[in-house]
Amino acid sequence: MSNEGKKVKVHYVGTLDDGTKFDSSRDRNEPLEFTCMAGQMIKGFDAAVKDMEVGQVIDVHIPAAEAYGERREDLVQTLPIAQLPGAENLVAGQKVTLGSPAGYPIPALVAKIEDGNITFDMNHEMAGKDLNFNIELLEVAE
Asked: Are the C-beta atoms of residues 8 and 36 closer than 8 Å to each other?
């Protein structure tokens, strides 16, 4: 029976291929609630939960393309620091929010600062990474 369109509640532990844990609802003791297949979750996670039964626990490997996507070099941009008021106060590794031409917020990482230039990486921090999840389906509601 499909869980598509239903509200589900799960516990999960997310790891990278090297075993590094990046997130866990169990550690927070706070199950994740979402509408299955409604686009609220990464594609691979949604697909994994779609056909699960309450009480079932699965391990799933989600390739980057079905998670946060592949890294895109066009989302890495270098600009002269002089063109960005306040940029001289930023440091490499800092997370910032940039504005799109239309005024929308764009999260970015200050990748590097050198030779009067600043490089921003606007890829999601999990882009290009395959993800592994241990998922337990706790509840399904119509």
From this structure: yes
